[in-house]
């Protein structure tokens, strides 16, 4: 799970288990898998699981399969399959062989179900879903056997065959394992492993009208693929006895070890695909890849780097304890990776016009500047100057506060990579608003300090003649509450999380940026000096035609302030 090949390996309880398995000979290799359900886009929680599964396989010179858990066809689609594939590849991971699907194993899963029936370990049940819940019992009381539990093997085989052939209505019958209705683990109280559901499947079409349940499908799929360590989130810990029971009671050679780790909860975000889908359906975001969404596609479009997401996954670690992480940890990891890799340019997002009154085309010179102070290989660009320039409005104060080191009436400041200028006149409109500054250039200060005085302040700027006007999408956090789906109202019920959508999470800001960025390809990351990190939009930025930038993250954390 390293972000770099020479990054230190941080031990955790999963590594300790794998190390012990390899040392004792229980396992000769490491084969993991990442098994998402393709019913939405991958989010930051998936990113953690991807980094764990693929990262461990890489670190142990093993393999990691990508398998789509496509047993719930109502909500699944090829769009979501392709999104997962793109996201994993973008993060820099490679799965073993072709993409696998649980539906690849439907015939074998059916055959194993027949095997369980013949062994007297599975039966067809006619209880409705509501009746089944009543028979299941509770945490402090045992369940009761279904009145259909003692059907003969022959009757169960006949009914299950007819279920497959479509003789019975949806939901009228299920196939259940015969385990123990008095078990203290509710998951072992005769769980259903097949249900009747006439739904078109995105891969198998209408071949099946019965579909296997997740707990039954997952363990057998792992075993078929030769998985050694089946890593999943902590909510499946109570399902592990069922995982083991199924594999112990069918004729399959491999028995993977299920290991659980805590799932990620990111503050000011959601990691429920159902709730993320609601945001999309209700038009509260522009889609699954909206840069405000905690999806990998959204983070990619916002300008997060794969290295930043991997560094985040490494920093939050792997444990069984609650994993509630503040957004600043993710933003900090992203910021850290962008600092070294992003070319610097200047941009102005809240422009104030400055006229350089003594500008002289024959005398006033431009300079070149490096794209990065520590990476000469990034090259340089020309920073042109003209009679009219733009500066940030908040870099000027008519009545400056204490310790002010930027521009003020009668004061001096250095233009980044250029001259020292002095503000000689403040121009206001009829409402008293400042609309223009008239400043003079000290032509003896290009590349050197002025004589006889110190000028401490340096501000960024762009030439009004040369800069390009661009649209900047200024993104902030999507929610105003740290845990938007965990807020209770006065009645004790949970408040709809959609009430906490931050109405200020997206602002469209016209800006002026150095012309050198216009030719940049989509998904090019830049640091706008003194402003933050920005990326050319993946889809709407048109090189040479139209510049569209998304704000990724500020130069430092300002949220807590």
Automatic annotation (TrEMBL):
GO molecular-function term, one example from the UniProt record: ligase activity
Glutamyl/glutaminyl-tRNA synthetase class Ib anti-codon binding domain residues: 342-442
Keyword Ribonucleoprotein appears in the UniProt entry: no
A Pfam match: tRNA-synt_1c_C
Catalytic activity: tRNA(Gln) + L-glutamine + ATP = L-glutaminyl-tRNA(Gln) + AMP + diphosphate
Binding of ATP, residues: 37-39, 43-49, 263-264
Subcellular location: Cytoplasm
Source superkingdom: Bacteria
Record bears the keyword Protein biosynthesis: yes
E.C. number: 6.1.1.18
Family in the record: Belongs to the class-I aminoacyl-tRNA synthetase family.
PANTHER family: GLUTAMATE--TRNA LIGASE, GLUTAMINE-TRNA LIGASE
Protein name per the record: Glutamine--tRNA ligase
Organism: Crenobacter oryzisoli
Gene expressing this chain: glnS
């Amino acid at each position: 799970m390293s972000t770099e090949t020479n990054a230190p390996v941080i031990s955790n309880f999963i590594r300790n288990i794998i190390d012990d398995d390899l040392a004792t000979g229980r396992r000769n290799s490491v084969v993991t898998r990442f098994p998402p359900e393709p019913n939405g886009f991958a989010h930051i929680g998936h990113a953690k699981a991807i980094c764990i599964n693929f990262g461990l396989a890489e670190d142990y010179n093993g393999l990691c399969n990508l398998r789509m858990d496509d047993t719930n066809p109502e909500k699944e689609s090829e769009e979501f399959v392709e999104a997962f594939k793109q996201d994993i590849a973008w993060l820099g991971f490679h799965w073993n062989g072709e993409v696998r699907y649980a539906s690849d194993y439907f015939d074998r899963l059916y055959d194993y179900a027949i095997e369980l029936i013949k062994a007297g370990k599975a039966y067809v049940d006619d209880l409705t879903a509501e009746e089944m819940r009543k028979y299941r019992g509770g945490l402090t009381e045992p369940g009761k056997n279904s009145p259909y539990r003692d059907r003969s093997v022959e009757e169960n085989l006949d009914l299950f065959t007819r279920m497959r052939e479509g003789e019975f209505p949806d939901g009228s019958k299920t196939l259940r394992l015969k385990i123990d209705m008095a078990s203290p683990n509710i998951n072992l109280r005769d769980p259903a492993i097949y249900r009747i559901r006439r739904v078109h499947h995105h891969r198998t079409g209408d071949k099946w009208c019965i579909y296997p349940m997740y707990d039954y499908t997952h363990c057998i799929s792992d075993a078929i693929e030769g998985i050694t360590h089946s890593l999943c989130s902590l909510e499946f810990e109570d399902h592990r006895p069922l995982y083991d029971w199924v594999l112990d009671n069918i004729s399959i050679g491999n028995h993977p070890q299920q290991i659980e780790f805590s799932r990620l909860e990111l503050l000011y975000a959601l990691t429920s695909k159902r709730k993320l889908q609601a945001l999309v359906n209700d038009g509260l975001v522009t889609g699954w890849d909206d840069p405000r969404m905690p999806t990998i596609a959204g983070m990619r479009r916002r300008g997060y780097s794969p290295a930043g997401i991997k560094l985040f996954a490494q920093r939050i670690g792997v444990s069984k304890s609650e994993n509630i992480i503040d957004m600043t940890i993710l933003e900090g990891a992203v910021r850290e990776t962008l600092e070294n890799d992003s070319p610097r340019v200047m941009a102005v997002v809240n422009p104030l016009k400055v006229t350089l009154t003594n500008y002289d085309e024959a005398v006033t010179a431009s300079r070149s500047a490096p794209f990065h102070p520590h990476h000469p290989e990034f090259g340089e660009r020309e920073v042109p100057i003209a009679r009219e320039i733009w500066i940030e409005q908040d870099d000027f104060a008519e009545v400056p506060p204490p310790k002010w080191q930027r521009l003020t009436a009668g004061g001096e400041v250095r233009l980044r990579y250029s001259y020292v200028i002095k503000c000689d006149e403040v121009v206001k409109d009829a409402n008293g608003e400042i609309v223009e500054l008239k400043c003079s250039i000290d032509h003896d200060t290009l590349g050197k300090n002025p004589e006889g005085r110190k000028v401490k302040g340096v501000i960024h700027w762009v030439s009004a003649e040369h800069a390009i006007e661009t649209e900047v999408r200024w993104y902030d956090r999507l929610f105003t509450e740290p845990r938007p789906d965990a807020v209770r109202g006065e009645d004790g019920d949970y408040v709809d999380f959609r009430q906490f959508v931050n109405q200020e999470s997206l602002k469209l800001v016209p800006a002026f940026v150095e012309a050198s960025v216009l030719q940049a390809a989509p998904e090019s990351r830049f640091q706008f000096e003194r402003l933050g990190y920005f990326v050319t939009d993946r889809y709407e930025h048109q090189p040479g035609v139209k510049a569209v930038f998304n704000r990724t993250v500020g130069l430092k954390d300002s949220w807590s302030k």
